[in-house]
């Protein structure tokens, strides 16, 4: 490969905050896990939650499962970028070391709701990319929640009741993708991520590179 091609392919860039939201059961966790597996440059922002773990969920990997008292303390100590009550529990994004890592080109993936998306966007418009996942139909949404078999019937009912309210926020997102076929949806979300990484303002290495080209 010629030097010029090689160096342009490895230009420094700023990381981004890639948000996936959807009504419960539309598939954002599924798509998130596929992205994390396929792409080394993006890391999950692990939220804290007061909800109990589902079977198979691991503390510190899928969520930080905390008590109400711990969550209160984190709020008081200003540990969150954003937090919100969702489905009777509280969820929040710990600040961690996101700001410094962004400068180094690390991307972060957020599986958060519309309230958290609004708060993150207000704090950091330039780095945030907002993607909303829609189910192909309301019947299919219920079918997915039931087939996931992780929630009791009353929990599924309450999530279905909230679905229309969640969907009403679709137009506060930069991209909207219908998750009918999971592979097709994953491909579209991956394309969005790839295009956003290429945005001129994120490619911090472009100025010295172009200067060199023109010298
Ligand atoms: N395109 C698809 N076709 C069929 N089933 C799907 C598809 N996408 C996801 N699923 C299944 O639907 C169920 C719900 O998906 P998932 O847990 O990813 O939803 P979610 O949006 O993250 O929900 P929540 O907000 O409750 O965490 C899972 O059992 C998943 O395997
Ligand atoms: N505002 C935030 N919303 C969050 C966060 N982490 C998860 N979520 C959202 O909560 C619901 C329910 O999630 P579940 O895992 O219990 O099914 C879902 O919409 C998530 O996107 C967060 O840190 N902040």
TrEMBL record:
InterPro entries: GK/Ca_channel_bsu, Guanylate_kin-like_dom, Guanylate_kinase, Guanylate_kinase_CS, P-loop_NTPase
Binding site for ATP: 22-29
Domain Guanylate kinase-like: residue ranges: 15-194
Sorted UniProt keywords: ATP-binding, Cytoplasm, Kinase, Nucleotide-binding, Transferase
Catalyzed reactions per annotation: GMP + ATP = GDP + ADP
Keyword Heme: no
Known EC number: 2.7.4.8
SUPFAM superfamilies in the record: P-loop containing nucleoside triphosphate hydrolases
Entry's Gene Ontology molecular function annotations: ATP binding; GMP kinase activity
Purpose: Essential for recycling GMP and indirectly, cGMP.
Similarity field: Belongs to the guanylate kinase family.
Protein name in UniProt: Guanylate kinase
Taxonomic lineage: Bacteria, Pseudomonadati, Pseudomonadota, Alphaproteobacteria, Sphingomonadales
Gene responsible for this protein: gmk
């Amino acid at each position: 490969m010629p030097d010029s091609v090689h160096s342009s392919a490895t230009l420094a860039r700023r990381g981004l905050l890639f948000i996936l939201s959807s009504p419960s059961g539309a598939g954002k966790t599924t798509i998130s896990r596929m992205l994390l597996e396929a792409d080394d440059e993006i890391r999950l922002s692990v939220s804290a939650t007061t909800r109990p773990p589902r079977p198979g969920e691991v503390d510190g990997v899928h969520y930080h499962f905390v008590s109400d008292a711990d969550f209160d303390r984190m709020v008081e100590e200003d540990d969150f970028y954003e937090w919100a009550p969702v489905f009777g529990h509280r969820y929040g994004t710990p600040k961690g070391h996101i700001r410094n890592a962004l400068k180094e080109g690390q991307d972060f993936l957020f599986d958060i709701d519309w309230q958290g998306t609004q708060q993150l966007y207000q704090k950091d418009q330039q780095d945030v990319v907002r993607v909303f996942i829609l189910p192909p139909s309301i019947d299919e949404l219920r079918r997915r929640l039931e087939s996931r078999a992780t929630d009791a019937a009353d929990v599924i009912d309450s999530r279905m009741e909230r679905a229309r309210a969640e969907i009403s926020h679709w137009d506060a997102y930069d991209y909207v993708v219908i998750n009918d076929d999971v592979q097709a949806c994953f491909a579209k979300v991956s394309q969005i991520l790839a295009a956003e990484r290429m945005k001129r303002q994120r490619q911090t290495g472009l100025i010295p590179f172009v200067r060199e080209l023109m010298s």
